[in-house]
Amino acid sequence: MIIFSGGTGTPKLLDGLKRVLPHEDIHVVVNTAEDIWVGGNLITPDIDTVLYLFSEKIDRSKWWGVDGDTFQTHQSMLDAGFDEGMMIGDVDRATHIMRSELLRSGLSLTESIRELCRHFGISAGIYPMTDDPVSTYISIPEGKLHFQDFWVGKRGEPDVLDVTIDGIRNASISPSVLELLEKEDNVLIGPSNPITSIGPIIALPGMVDILKGKNVVAISPIIGNEPVSGPAGKLMAAKGYDVSSKGVAECYADFLDVMVIDSTDTSDIKDIESVGCEVRQENTLMKSVEVSENLSESVIRIFKELNIYGIN
């Protein structure tokens, strides 16, 4: 199974999937448009969250970073008057340093992540969406900010006028992801932000056409008219989408087969289905591992019912 992933929402789903599927059958294509160089090292926030999840290092209280990490380097730099703008843990920083040294040695981003997976003992496939540099920028009344400056630096508080992805038109789907898509017909879009987490993946030239030939199931990160977490609502509105599960379906309308919405979502199902997809309702509010596992099993059943995902 291929899963398109961003930050917090989809890793919670992956936490369930890795309990019900062999890790070797899980292939995660991860957003890289929020990556940023800090302190001389490349930070790949969404990829690192997936790495830490599968290596059992993730801080489950935040769903990012390393559990029990310390911040001595960060504090020492602050004491010296040097503010990186992000609070980076010591173990987390080691990951950034290793990745950056691999890149400086000539490896691609995909190759560097493969090496980190080997180092962490991860058997699931974790793939950057592209090896090319792309960056999400948020336009606010005061100007244009990198996503990390908007979300971390300004805590996502400013009004959002627009969202753009610099470099996306000249970027290519990574060769490893292309190879994966040639072999696998089933794509699950996780409940991550459809604009800045999943949006960059599907914006890669050629991706929409590929997905039109796949079996695509998506899980909505919106319940009613509110995102489960993060700035998805503000960003969807800025791009002209209704903040609802229908709005999410419209983001994926060119290729979506099934939209999974929360069991408490009172949206008009027929209205969502008018986008051109089926709708299923499940408990998508993953407040526990058990809920994540149950949702994962439900998604597998949906694939099975659609004769998409063959499980003996």
Tell me about this structure.
This protein is an alpha/beta fold. The chain is 38% helix and 18% strand. 44% of the residues are buried. The mean pLDDT is 93.
In short:
The chain has helices spanning 9-20, 45-54, 72-79, 90-104, 109-120, 147-153, 175-183, 199-203, 207-212, 232-238, 245-251, 269-273, 289-305; strands at 2-5, 27-30, 36-38, 41-43, 125-128, 135-140, 143-146, 162-166, 186-189, 215-219, 222-223, 226-227, 258-262, 278-282. It has 312 residues and is α/β, with parallel strands linked by helices.
Shape, principal axes of CA atoms: globular
Helix and strand composition category: alpha/beta
- Give the H and E element order: EHEEEHHHHEEEHEHEHHEEEHHEHEH
Please mark out the parts with pLDDT under 50 across 5 or more consecutive residues, or reply none: none
- Average pLDDT metric: 93
Q: What's the total helix number?
A: 13
